[in-house]
Amino acid sequence: MPQHAYKYSAAKLLRHGLTRGTWPRMWRQPEFKDTYDVVIIGGGLHGLATAYYLATEHGITNVAVLDKGYLGGGGSGRNTAIVRSNYLTPEGVAFYDRSLHLYNTMADDLNLNVMFSRRGHLTLAHTDSALRTMHWRAEVNKLQGIDSSVIDPSDVKKEAPSLDVSPNTRYPILGALFHPPGGTVRHDAVVWGYARAADHHGVHLHQQTEVLDILCEGGTGPEGKGPGGKVTGVRTSRGDISAPIVVNCTAGWASLISNMAGVPLPITTHPLQAAVTEPTKVFLPTVVVSGSLHVYVSQTDRGELVFGASVDPVGTYRVNGTLEFTEELAGHVLELMPGISKMRLMRQWSGLCDMTPDYSPVMGFTPVEGYLVDVGWGTYGFKAGPVSGETMARTIATGKTDEMIAPFNLSRFTEGDLVGEKGAAAVGH
Amino acid sequence: MIIVPCPHCGPRNSVDLRNCGEVVNRPNPDTATLTEWRTYLYLRENAAGWVSETWYCRAGCRRYFTIERNTVTNEIRDQS
Amino acid sequence: MSSHRLPPQPGEVIDRSTVINFTWNGQPVIGLAGDTIASALAAQGVDVFSRSMKYHRHRGIMTADHWDPNLSLQVDDEPNVRAGTRLLAEGMQVSTQNVWPSLQHDVGVLNKAVGRFLSAGFYYKTFMKPKFLWDNVYQSVLRKFAPGGRVHWKTSTHGAYDKRYAHPDVLVAGGGPAGMAAALGAAQAGASVLLVEMAPELGGHLCWGNDAERAALDKLTTAVIAEANIEVMTRSTVTGRYDHNWVAVMQGDHPLAPERLVKARVGSLVVAPGLIERPLIFSGNDIPGVMLSGAARRLINLWAVKPGQRAVVLTANAEGDAAVKDLQAAGVEVVEVVDVRTGAMVASAVGKSRLQKVVLEDGRTIEADLLVTATGWTAPTSLLNMAGNRPVYDPQAARYFPENLPEEILTSGGIAGNGSTDELIAHGSATGVLAANRSLRLRHSRRAATARSRSPEGPAPEALTDTRTPLRREAHPECYRASTHGFVDYAEDVSSKDLIQAAGEGFDSIELMKRYTTVTMGPAQGKLETVNAAAVLAESRGMDLADIGTTVWRPPFAPISLGALAGRIFEPVRRSALQDWHEAHGATALLAGQWVRPDHYGDAVAEAQNVRNGVGIIDVTPLGKIDLQGPDVAKLLELVYVNRWESLKVGRVRYGAMVAEDGVVSDDGVTGRLSENHWLMTTTSSGAGAVWEMLEDWLQTGHPEWQVHVTPVTGGLTSINVAGPHSRQLLERLVSNVDLSSDAFPYFSVRQGTVADVPDCVIWRIGFTGELSFEVHVPSGHALAVWEALLAEGQDLGCAPFGVEAQRILRLEKGHYIVGQDTDGLSKAPTAGLGGLVKLDKTDTIGLPELRAAYQREDLPILVAVQPDDPTVLPEEAAQIVDGQTATILGRVTSSRHSPTLGRSICLAQVAPQLAAPGTVITVLMADGRRIPATVQEHHAHLDHQGARQRV
Of C201, C249, C641, C827, which has the fewest CB atoms closer than 10 Å, so is most exposed? Predict the structure, then answer.
């Protein structure tokens, strides 16, 4: 942290408690300038992490992060906060493992306790073919040095005693992929941690600032947009900003914002729903995922069960949520844990997910010079937030696509080189 | 649970049907360039507003039909 | 414990003749029928019901209804029971939740001592170092302090829950005077009505009102009961309103189910939930003995419980004034009435396990054990929020009002404004009439759009215009916080000071503040806290409350049990007509997708060997079967398969593979031509449904001019494969009208005939096992007879059933790949080795451009047969193929078995193209870390690659 940063510690907590002094702001309310070196659209985890690494790793601090609402109000604040690195492809594993590593040291790096809980992550297999995929993942994971293995039902029971592992259920648990380093992180704290640290390094965070257009010149499309052109800035609800680099770090609206630069994206937007129960005494120590039953569940330190599912089948920008989501969810959870039927669902919500055809993101440069994307994060954006910020910052600073994100380039959809994560990521929490 | 107006079965709960996504035009597979083909495969309008989309009445008449739905409000209007 | 029960009250709901025994923290106590858990305990003199989450402060009755933050109790094996509304039942074991070891001596109270250090978000600022302590100690300690009750997951079971669909023209949420009147108005206008009320009785605030109000209630109740068009649900909650007026009701008064989910497609939704009384923020506002006016009035009037001895009443409205009268009538000494409307105010309350004194703003201190507050209302606009509506704050009335509602939602009662009982009833009634009119018009238009048999009779009703006289917005002082700080969120232990601190740290929008402080995140989900939180934020930012906005209320309106949401879990399994036989004959069941199948009957290897050497039969019913009829079937097949079909002759069969539009292999199977215009297609088991719908899609939207009928017959035909050198001999004994000789019925042919006296069977000469085999498709009603006849007739030939595992061994020996196992989500035609099959010169085939592109590429993985050099080593399926001693992955084993015929391990594997040449030695990484050599084979088939055995 730089000199002017206000460091948190137990001692500070003690002093504030005794003196009842006020805590400083976590981030400033910066002046709105008309020129920045880099404009990042989207004040969520990905945008803030990119700004943070630009400032800390590359000394690029004349950066604005714009958000039409408040920080972390989109997917960053609506996800179920699960992290893991037991993916299917070597590229995916390496990428998410770097992210997990960054999460592991984040509290110290950002001086904010993001409450990373390495509680272990179980992906249940209910069929022979699912079990085969778990073995596949475990083998790839082990080659990359990831702690990941297939365990049998009796060991599943040890990790999560409330699961019904008897063989006579409709979806018997035949085994599970066990990933001890996986777990949960307090998602809002990650946003605040990056925001606070980025702010301390000089980045401007502009909330309530909506991007209305991306300004381009020289492109083949209308208004100089589109392939062959280059970015000159953005038009916002608070005025124009000129900038040679504009980064789209949005979710839910990524394809519509990208259209502003004349760069269509292979994205359809679907809601992803989640729900939480009333708190009870803690009984579920690990994260449990079932692909066949489209459900994942973990219990917070406050005792609430947090549930998620796969994306809604109908594409929409509506985040009202549906009743049938909660019905299916409850049915599937009770298949796994029949003893918890008296727990009550307290709240359901949903967020928007930008789904790509191969369940992998779109990252890096585009046919418009100076316009970069970090989008298409589907249901897995939270896990990848730190490494995305790190690699996007490196790509911006060096002007060269970072090796880790090369497979995620937009051009793969015209060249037919799709990424093979679909099998692992479809319900991959 | 929205109501989808099947032209044959009348208004039905959406679980009775399958949403097949927005209507896209398939290029001639014999003559299309790969770029045209992959545009057809992967690019969608993904509009926030009215879209033409196909539904399949899987628990009813088993017909495919097209309606217009507003993706922001879930309002539906019949195209016929 | 002394009794605080009052003499009989005129509106009481208790039955003094029926005593109910229950236990409270292990001690036997009594209550009366009609009591809630809370009223029974209060009648016994219980002051402290719980300890607070963070500081473990004593907490007592606050609202005495569903939203009471202090009345979440454990009842038997059920956690977080709302004691303010749950009716007492015989034998209940009731206990506090958030205490250890007991309610009186709770060690969590230590938190209280350090409370000043536990400011908003304190946990984000500490516990970071040393890291190992966070990983191993802090976290588990934090988890120990989780609030809430205990889930008895070891012993509880999913009970009997059912669901119900309802189609009321009008659903009224809230059974107070306005809601009851709305139900009556709508019913009398010809609408069917569902009236839903959270409390055990209809009536809302009339229930605990004065004589005139109770008289009005009696009249309404009589009318509602007499109205046949109204169905009433009490102890029930409208928990959610979803798009197109899909409304969830959690029914609590069903005689059998503890909770029942009612899913209602509603014409018009009338939202009339009344108002929720809002606490005031001041120091000590959570001490037992501080309660809201509604709580005090209900305790006295409904349950005849005296809430205290000496009371101070803080009032800003008529409800508070009424509370003064009720308290006096109940014999409570009202020592001071603090009237906000005259500028008076309470400053703080003092006490620990019970209120001791009240300090007023004017400096006086008054000894009292009861402080009743009536300082304003929260409009429960949840259902309106769910419809996208954002209520607007009116500072004169000090509450929020809905505006610009959609047509299908109407409001009445307190949420819409104030009025006398008569005015509320009149407004409700007019709202009901309007709701009925709109819903009847909607019903008419829906029927007009439905099948003829349900067409409406006559024209749609004329649309009524909304001529209702709006309810008044009565002036009310804005009172949110006294001069001191106190709790905003009782369940979360969040104070106004925490909120101001959070705003100062930058969490200065309501959503950020909520996330940082957890205000409104407890079980009441903001019903009591949201407006106060927004008011504190407005105050700290120097803004008007109207400009702050509130958090959006999400469903459910009140928590719902997982059991009720799940209902009766209906996850059917498909069974072939022979599955009972399999299970009766020792088959081990295998769940494969939707189907349950026989994995083996004891010894899969012996079953496989019996096929190679004699004859076996297997039930392969899950194989997808689609009957295709019409003159254009061949055109359809040309489109959906990568190979040619026009030339297939009647009686012949061809293997076909399908790819999707992106070129990825999607399904395969054999299809036979039974007659000129009649074909039978087979698909993979898991792909049967998708292929069927895909065929319909192409026929309906791509080529509506083609004449093809598509009929799925997977379950209608039971498929039995008869395999092995003796299969012809066996079948000849049962088939008379088909010549089974090799000349008359060559390999890859299909015939129709009679098998074991069952006509209309389809007999295929195909096989997955590599042996001479016939697949018989029998009308399922006769399947068992054919199956048993095969076994009986084949006894001397050693005919025995074989299961899925034996078939897997046999097909792998033969090198047949399985789509989805040996191929994956990226596998294109060249990977699967379809080169000889694919016809790139067609003008249209699904995925044609990608097929052509795929054959231009040289980097696609190739499926090959592989044999470990050491025949005893059996690689795991999914074992990785690596580059020597490195971690570079060059492929993976997709199928692997020990071959009893060859006496060695055999595999299929996807490998990088540079490894695909026959004879290449590859390195397989075993699960135990060993790297073993294996050799790529020339053919996929490990056995009889020329097919001599199946062509005999």
Answer: C201
DSSP count for chain A of H helices, then E strands:
13, 19
Range with the lowest mean pLDDT among A16-20, A291-295, C182-186, C479-483?
A: A16-20
Using the beta-carbon criterion (under 8 Å), do A70 and C134 form an inter-chain contact?
no
**Strand ranges across the sheet with A239-242:** A211-217, A230-236, A239-242
Please judge whether B5 and C696 are an interchain contact, meaning their C-beta atoms are less than 8 angstroms apart.
Answer: no
Residues from chain A contacting residue B22 (CB–CB below 8 Å): 268, 315
In chain C, the residue whose alpha carbon lies closest to the alpha carbon of A196 is C506
CB contact under 8 Å between B34 and A414, yes or no, is yes
Chain C, 286 to 345: residues with Cβ < 8 Å from chain A are none
> What are the CA-CA distances from residue A260 to residues A235, A246, A254, C155 (Å)?
10, 12, 10, 58
Contact C156 A170 (CB under 8 A): no
**Is B44 in the A-facing interface, judged by CB distances under 8 Å?**
yes
What's the CATH class of domain C480-564? mainly alpha
CATH 1.25.40.10 for domain B3-78: no
* Contact between chains at A136 and C134 (C-beta distance less than 8 A): no
What pLDDT sits at residue A426?
36
Beta bridge partners of A165: none
ipTM for the whole complex: 0.97
Distance between start and end Cα atoms, chain C: 94
Q: Are strands C58-59 and C50-51 parallel, antiparallel or unpaired?
A: antiparallel
Contacts 24+ apart (CB under 8 A), C522-525: C522/C53, C522/C69, C522/C489, C522/C490, C522/C491, C522/C492, C523/A278, C523/A279, C523/A346, C523/C69, C523/C72, C523/C80, C523/C491, C523/C559, C524/C67, C524/C69, C524/C491, C525/A346, C525/A347, C525/C553, C525/C554
CA distance B1 to chain A (A): 6
Domain boundaries, chain A: 33-85+87-111+187-266+358-425, 121-180+268-355
Q: Is domain C165-275+382-454 annotated with CATH 3.40.190.10?
A: no
Exposed e or buried b for every residue in C751-765, given b needs 16+ CB within 10 A?
bbbebbebeebbbbb
CATH of domain A33-85+87-111+187-266+358-425: 3.50.50.60
Chain B touching partners, 3 or more CB pairs below 8 A: A, C
CATH number of A121-180+268-355: 3.30.9.10
pLDDT tens column, C357-379: 999 999 999 999 999 999 999 99
Q: Between the CA atoms of C787, C792, C798 and C801, what dihedral angle is there, to the nearest 10 degrees? A: 20
Please give the pLDDT value at position C126. 76
Q: What is the residue whose two structure tokens read 């016929």? A: B80
Query: Are B71 and A316 a contacting pair at CB < 8 A?
Result: yes
Distance from CA of C126 to the nearest CA of A (A): 5
DSSP reduced 3-state for C931? strand
Q: Which residues of A touch B58 (CB under 8 A)?
A: none
* B26 chain-C contacts, CB cut-off 8 A: 702
Q: Where are the domains of chain B?
A: 3-78
Closest CA relative to residue A394, chosen from A182, A145, A73, A98: A98
Q: pLDDT tens across A108-126, in order?
A: 999 999 999 999 999 999 9
CB contact (8 A) between residue B11 and residue C449: yes
C450 neighbourhood in chain B, CB within 8 Å: 9-11
Q: Which residues of chain B have pLDDT under 70?
A: 78-80
> Which CATH number is associated with domain C15-106+279-374?
3.10.20.440
Contacts of A22 in chain C (CB under 8 A): 501, 504
Chain C closest CA to A222's CA: distance in Å?
Answer: 31
Peptide bond before C130: cis, by omega within 30 degrees of 0?
Answer: yes
